[in-house]
Amino acid sequence: MEITNKTIDDGKAFDWGRTSGDYAKYRDIYPEIFYEKIVKRNLCTQGQHVLDLGTGTGVLPRNMYRYGAQWIGTDISENQILQAEKLSEESNMKIQYQAVAAEDVDFPDDTFDVITACQCFWYFDYEKVMPNLSRMLKKDGRLLLLYMAWLPFEDKIAHASEELVLQYNPKWSGAGETMHPIFVPDCVYETFETAYHEEYEVDIPFTKETWHGRMKACRGVGASLSPEEIAKWEVEHKRLLDDIAPNEFTIKHYAAMLELKRRAD
Questions:
Q1: Which of 66, 78, 123, 139 allows an S-S link to 99, with CB 3.0 to 4.6 Å?
Q2: 166 near 233, Cβ under 8 Å?
Q3: Residue 9 neighbours by CB under 8 Å, 6+ apart
C-alpha cells in the first residue's frame, strides 16, 4: 500500500510491501542489548499482552517471544504481514498478525499491558491514534516507542551509502541522523506522559552483502524508487562498497526508547 505524507520525503510515495523480501532478510539487526533494555523496564514479559503497531515482518515480537508475552502484530502492508506470518510459523511461534493501519486498529478497552511501535511512530496520524491507544491500554499500561538508526557523521561507510541514496532520492528525509531522544508531538502529551527514556550507541556488524541489503531495504531505495532506479543504485552501491569497505565491518548506530504512561485522570 502506497503512503504519502508531506512531512516525509517531501510527499514522495513509498510502499513497504515492495521491499518485504529484503526487509525480512536484512532488517532483523537489533542487538541483544536492544531487547534486554526493554525487559529491564519490565515490559513485554511473561503474562503481559502486547500489541506491536507497524510490526513489519514481526521483528520485535519474534525476537521477544522468548520472554513469554502474548503478542499481536499489526501493519498497514499485507506483504509485510505475510512475511511476519511465514517467519513466525517457521519458528513455531504463536503470534497473531493483522494487516490493518494503525489508525484502524480496534481492540476492547483495557486489553494491553504494553503497546509498542518500533521504527514507525512518525508514520501515524497522531490525532486519531493516541486516544485509541490510551483506550486499549490497561490503567497501568505502557506505550513504548523504539528506534535505531545509523550515524552518518560518525561512520564513513554509512555516510557514503547515504550520499548515494540521496543522489537517487534527493528528498529522502531519512538522511543526516544524529543521536537524540525520540520526539513526539504535543498532542501525545494530552493523553500520555514520559515514564522513562534512554539513548545509547551500538556497533552493528555487517558484511558487504548484508549492509547492501539493509540499505536497499530502506524507505529511500526499495520502498520508493522505480525498479530501473533500484537496479542502477545497486550496481553503484556494490561498487562503492568494494572501494571503501572490508568484507566484514561494523556500522555505528544509536538506539533510543521512550516509555510513556497514561496521564492520571
A1: 78
A2: no
A3: 169, 171, 172, 173, 174, 219, 220, 224
What pTM, to 2 d.p., does this model score? 0.95
What nine digits make up the cell of 235? 550496481
Cβ–Cβ < 8 Å for 145, 122: no
Amino acid at residue number 13: A
What distance in Å separates the CA atoms of residue 117 and residue 259, rounded to the nearest whole number? 11
CA distances from 225 to 18, 168, 169, 171 (A): 10, 8, 8, 12
Consecutive 10-residue averages of pLDDT for the chain (265 residues): 84 90 95 98 98 97 98 96 97 97 96 97 93 95 98 98 98 96 94 97 98 97 96 98 98 98 83
Do residues 37 and 30 make contact, with C-beta atoms less than 8 angstroms apart?
no
Q: How far apart are CA 50 and CA 43, in angstroms?
A: 9
**Nearby residues of 191 by Cβ (< 8 Å), 6 or more positions away:** 130, 131, 133, 134, 262, 263
Alpha-carbon span 129 to 134, nearest angstrom: 9
Please report, as a single letter, which amino acid is at residue 200: Y
- In one-letter notation, the amino acid at residue 173 is S
Measured between its terminal Cα atoms, the distance across the chain in Å is 38
Report d(CA 179, CA 245) in Å as an integer: 24
Which grid cell is 147?
528506534
Q: How far apart are CA 52 and CA 226, in angstroms?
A: 30
Host H or E run for residue 1: none
146, 116 Cβ separation under 8 angstroms: yes
Neighbours of 227 (CB within 10 A): 8
Strands 192-207 and 96-99: unpaired
Query: What are the Cα distances from residue 153, in Å, to 120, 146, 150, 187, 249?
Result: 23, 21, 9, 31, 17
CA-to-CA distance for 90 and 100, rounded, in angstroms?
A: 23
